[in-house]
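ping. complex inputs:
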Amino acid sequence: MSHFSTIKTKLKNKPQLVEALEMLQYEVKEDQELKVTGAHGIGHETVEAEVAIAQDIGFRMDPRTGEYELVTDLETWNQPIPVERFIDKVNQQYARMTIHNTVKDMGFQVEEEWEMIDGSIELTVNRWIGSSVD
Amino acid sequence: MPQQQIKFTIRQDGTVTEEVFGVVGNECENITRTIEKKLGTVNYTEVKPEYYNNVTLQHNQNETQEQTTTG
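pong. complex structure:
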């Protein structure tokens, strides 16, 4: 063992964000105009979102940070899980997809993947030095 | 032929812990830098003693029980 890091995931890559949302069983639409529903929506502005999973839930990129951020109306949030938990799940799935795609390109193969009791995912990948892949 | 292994723990909030086995020195950082770049911000990195080992001492790792060099 020679290296041990802790990394905070940031949503920077649109295709991987879409992939992560689809893995979480959301139907993803791109470049949508989000609308606020319900009576209190009157007079609210609409919001452009590059990635949307509902009429009033989506993600748009913050040009200052280059990161995608959730845009939604917390008053009409009707998902089965709280919004904080939703963001966590998206981050976790995004990290998982990013790792899978990256290590595959580097010639690693997945040895095992487990979902642990605490909800974390353990993923072990291998590659042999001297094989034809880099 | 030695084996390189990376073990990722992806916590519920998307924070990733990464441990690299079977790689010494700078090569280790090269392998994971790509992943870290794509994922986000590295909060913490601990360099294990093996970092300073010569490549030929790779077989002496005592923490990795699965570190066989057959195959």
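The CA atoms of residues 24 and 50 of chain B lie 6 Å apart.
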